[in-house]
Amino acid sequence: MQDLIQKAHASNPRIEVHAWFAMMPVWNQSTPPKDPNHVFNLHGPGKTGRDLWLSKNFAGSFTGDGNSEYVIDPGHPDAADYTINVLKHVAAHYDVDGIHMDLIRYMGTDWGYNPTSVDRFNQRYGRTGLPDPNDETWKAWRREQVNHLVEKAYANLLAVKPNLVVSAATIAWGNGPKTIDEYKASLTMNSALQDWNRWLETGAIDLAIPMNYFREYDPTQKQYYENWLAWEKDHQYKRRISAGVGLYLNSIPDGLTQIRKARQPSVSGNKLAGVHLYSYAVTNKDGVPNSEFYAALSEPSPYDNQTPVLAEQVAPPVLPWKAQPITGHLTGKVLYSNGTISDNETVTIRGPESRTVQTDGSGDYSAIDLKPGTYTITCGKISKTVSITAGKVTQANLTD
Description:
Layout: H1 2-10, E1 18-22, E2 25-27, H2 39-43, E3 70-71, H3 77-93, E4 98-102, H4 115-125, H5 136-160, E5 165-170, H6 180-184, H7 187-190, H8 196-202, E6 207-212, H9 219-234, E7 240-246, H10 252-263, E8 274-278, H11 290-298, H12 320-323, E9 328-335, E10 346-350, E11 354-358, E12 364-370, E13 373-379, E14 382-388, E15 393-395, E16 398-399
Parallel strand pairs: 1-4, 4-5, 5-6, 6-7, 7-8, 9-15, 9-16
Antiparallel strand pairs: 2-3, 9-12, 10-11, 10-13, 13-14
Helix pairs in contact: 3-5
């Protein structure tokens, strides 16, 4: 990675390097890794209680339902914190321009049955046994675990490197929504259990890259693609969206067409930050050499009779909240002297604006994009006064 960063940053024009992470998967082989300190060996099959970090499906399997990988469970506090620490390590030790989070979700509605996760859910709602995969409260709780992971990762990463761009590959399955109710009923929310619309609303990521992987030649998928694009252009909120285009599913002309559609403004006049082109090793479905697609991007070609889609080199877009920040961030932990973990307790933040957030399974809380000034942070009978500075992350632990 260091070699890559040196060469990319020394190029003209300078190339940004964003480190890509598969957030949940930890192993995908039939035999365990050789390193005894690998997370799979320390917290995988055979471990019990709090030491088991892997997710299970409703049937009790670590793999299955089309999932061939062993994945950690975001509802297990230690697994979530370990994952964030890996991201922080890279941000602290390598001059990366960004951190990109992929597979930041559940593998499906049937997943999330890590015993510690289920115990936390049951304790919160006074239940016993395994919740039904389609139980709405259980689905909402699992989405909340992913939200906590994303929000805490953002605050912790910016504490290491304030200008870091934190992005996520987000789910765009099925037909694109036209209303917020359709979004809430989507496969994104109810199968992947991923609410990336909220991440953009709260500012918990800088850039979403929806995986709009659809076939332009299929009339149904073509419509799905266009509907997702329309939603994305008009629902960027505090942050930005760049459309992911599935080149590997399309011919070169169709790939170019999808790029053009992504770059056009919406009916309301809103534009995306750009496009991200996903090739899956190939840039088209027809076996045409990748070099022909690369040439067609910036030069006249037999595949396209219009001005090339990337006729000019441009710099990556400036993100104004990075270049000239007007808000700060807050993160911390609620600590009790008797060792009790503050799980799902309300933290009230009052000052130039008011906010309430919940602690996660480690007793941590985060608040993104607060107006600068003096705030009083309260959890139960514990209070603390802190100062928020634009462009900075304030750490505020609450202890009894």
